[in-house]
Structures are given as structure tokens and as C-alpha cells.
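Run folding on both entries below.
>entry_1
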Amino acid sequence: MRLATWNVNSVRSRVGRVVDWLTREDVDVLAMQEIKCTEAQFPFAEFEDAGYRVVLHGLNQWNGVAIASRYELDDVAMQFDGQPGFLKGAEGPDQPIEARAIGATTNGIRVWSIYAPNGRALGDPHYDYKLDWFAALQGSMTEWMASNADTPLMVAGDYNVAPLPEDVGDPTIIEGVSTHVSPPEREAFQALQAAGLADVVRPLIPEGYTYWDYKQLRFPRNEGMRIDFVLGSKPFADRVTGAAIHRDERKGDAPSDHVPVTVDIDTELEDDDRPMIF
């Protein structure tokens, strides 16, 4: 079974590229981020014609997450437990929840597509929101794993954190100045791993970026960042047999500034048992 994550940076603009890649790479489940549309605007027909069901959480032209699967999608959740909200200029606990997380169970695997807050700048309220968001994500996933110890869990997406120095090739990203690389952000990422969510790609693909800014020829110069990850619980990580960062998807006409990351896992379900979708 092949699972993937991809910040598509507007699914309506890139639906042809996304669906073509899905079928070409024989991907079973895709976690998408930055779909940038509402449910009424989502291009369901293109995915359904290719054999995929889709669930999504999209509120407007910003953010938005989705899961596409060749299998049924059950127990859909539009936010994780304790997920904080944000509204610029507002204070207090009751801020609106942004479209940054969606979870569903598909073919026996609990899948989350997450799009972490950017943080904007050190000291910005959005930076504090980002840290609160990560703390809540850790708490929610830790509690879920404790109650579902035998169920594989994948938490995949754009984490907006470069956990290690070698994950940064962009010269404008500077420790002590920039978000994505500050000690609190990196500690928040490490806390997820300490809670039992392993980075299942790095042991197989130790090097490589997943994001390159559109400006200043960042991609041709390979001045990128590794900020897109597939984290998995032990029952998920133990099944991983392969992984890939699909760098070539940053090439060509109108690419996303991120590339997909795939993970292959062993399952007990034979391919011939896969339900067909027409």
C-alpha cells in the first residue's frame, strides 16, 4: 500500500498534475494540504474518475486539507482534540478553528493530513499560536495512540518546521532570526517523536528537501527546506518498506512549491480485494 503527503498549493490550479501523479505512481492514499478551496469548489469529479474518494476541510481560499483514498474513508474528523484557533487581533480561548487538520480511517489505517501554522515571525502572535497548535497535536495524538495501540496511525503533512540543520538550504532562513528553525519549533517537532510518532522517511531517505520558494531561483540552486513529513506510530512504522521524495514534481509547468513524499507499507489486505470505484 502506498501513502503520500503533498502540499499542492491550490488543488484547483493543479488538479491535472495531482491526479496524473497519483495514477502514475499508483498511490492509494494522499494527504493534501493548502487545497485553498471550499467543499463546493473542490474538483471531486477528476479524483472520482481516477478511482479516489475524497474528504476535505476547506473554509475559504486559504489553508485547507484533504484526504484522497482508493478505499472507504470512515470516522472523519475535521479537527483534532484540543486544536486551538486563531484570529488576528483577537485574544482568548474561543478563536475560530482554521482548516488545518482532517483525519479519517482508511483500509485499517488512521490517517491525518495536517498543515501546521507558519508562525510568520518570531514574537508574532501567530508564532505563539503555532507552538500551542503543536502542543495540542501532540496531546491529541498521544491520547489516541494510548486508546488505539494496535491501529497504525499516520500523521502526514506540511509541518512548517525544519527539524535539523541539514534540512535547510535556503540562505534566507537563519537560526535566531527566522521561523521554522527556532529552538521551540524544533523542540515541538521532537516532542511528537518522543510521544511515539516516528519520522518513517528519514531513515530511508536521509537527505533531500521537500520545499523550494518560487523566488530567487531557489529550486535550480537547490536552496530548499525539508518541512513535509510522514510521522507514524509504531504499528505504522513497523510496516514501512520504502519511501521517496518526488523532487521532479517541482519541475514543469506551474508546479507547487512543495513536492510529494511517499511511503510504502505492508498490509494484510491483498490488492485484489480493493473495492472498485466507478
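>entry_2
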Amino acid sequence: MMNPKISIGSWAFAFGPFAQSPWPFTRILQYAQQAGYDGIEINGFAPHPTPELYPTASSRQALLEEIQSYGLGISGYAPDFSSAPPDRCKQADYLELLRSYITFCTDLGIDTIRVDTVSPPSELSLEQYEDNFAHLALTWRASAELAAAKGIRIVWEFEPGFWLNKPSEVKRLVEAVNHPAFQVLFDTSHAYMSGVVGARQTGEKEICSGGIVEYAQLLQGHIGHFHLIDSDGTLHDEETSTHAAFGAGEVDFKAVLKELKPVVSVMEWWCVDFCFNAEVEEWGRQAVPFIRKAIKEAE
């Protein structure tokens, strides 16, 4: 039985077309409630909630109460690590940032922190690649230890626009970290672009002939969070996956949900991700009924 709570990522109202005039967080809460969402996944870039904007336990309690006043929960937190690329920065710098985010999440009752590799995909020498890979794995293992101590898990969102965007690389990295509090965030659009199109991969392309279902099967046992969005097979600004309207792209959600049911049915939250999409206000209203219908068809 698939009956997840469905959230929407607040970054959709802050990045790309909204960068010059981000929606205030309260407006997003109002929208999420009206559009039938159960919760919000918080973008950790100002002007949306950050540890600096909500520096005290009392200010965070007030934020939590505001979110709950709209009948909403929190599915996760996506903080800013842009100043500390984990494959090459000092581990201590990364962990210092992470500690502040863990405390923030603990105060808000959030149990999931989203991360990425920060660095863009690039052709590295074998020696440099292996050095960066080993450093990244050690940094994220130490991160998982810190998170686990507070009952929090870290989920890595792979995507075409960041380093390690081939299916085998994703599998290798999560296995190298080898910690139960470190898992993969499986985004249907990124999985299509990375695993089916092979977008922005360096060297020889690596694709999954069985589509995103095969990609998910490759990561069996390692998927800890789920983002839903369609893909039209293109990149946004030649950087990362275009997040298309549900039903307008290449993802067969009925088939995907049917095949991934054992994985995603146990998840409390699924998050809708309309990042960089100018039509999120309209298309975001259509997302919840679309997903609920796809669930029924896949059962």
C-alpha cells in the first residue's frame, strides 16, 4: 500500500526564474496548504530558513509552529554547502557546516538532510579522481556518523550537473561510504537524465537500457528519499535536469511506481521538485492529484 505524505520543495520558488524575487517562506506555506500538499521540504538558502536567520531555539520553535499552523509537516532540509565542496575541501570545514545544520534540523524535528557533491562534472586524471573520490567518501562517512548520533540521515542527490553522475559511480560512492545513515535521494528527473540520456557524463557514456527502473534496481538497498518530477530529456541552461510538468515528459510514473513499490511504499514522505520551473505555481497544483492517480493505477 502506497500512501505517502507529499511535500513540495521550497527551492522551486527561490531559484532560477524566481531568483530575482523569491517568494517569502510564509507565502509558500500558504500555497502548499491550498494546493493540497502535506508538507514542505525546506530550501536552506536565504531568504528561506537557515540557521543564521533562525539563530535561537525559540525562533526555530516559532518557525515550526508557523509551518504546523498550515497543517504541514517537514520532509527534509536542503542546506547550502556551496562554500565547502566535500570532494576537496578540508573535512573539518564541511563538518563544521554540517553541525550547524544538524542542530537546526534537530530543533525543527527534521530527520533528513539533502547533500550533493557541489563540484561540477569534470575530466580528471585517474589519480586525481581517486584522491577526490576517497576524500569524499571519508567526509560523507564522518558526516553520517554525526547525523546518526542525532537520529538524522543524509541523502545524496545525484544529478547531471554535479560530479559523479554515472550510475556505477553513484553505486560505488554510496557503497564506499558504507553507513546506514547515508543513502541516495532518487529523483525521477535526474535518474532519467543521468541514467537514460547520459547527460554531462565525461568520457564514455553509461546508460541504463532498462530506464530509471533499472537505475533504481542498481541502487537497491541504498535509496532513502524520493523526489518526483517529469523529464523532457533536456537540460536547464545546459547544467542540470529540466523539471517538466507531470505527464508532459518521458517518465512513465505508473510503471515506475509499480516497479519501485517495495522501495517507496515504506517512505513516509515523497517530495515534488519543480526546481527552475517558471510554471510551478500552476503545475504544482496539478502534481498532488496526478501522483495520487498514478499511485492508484500502480497498486
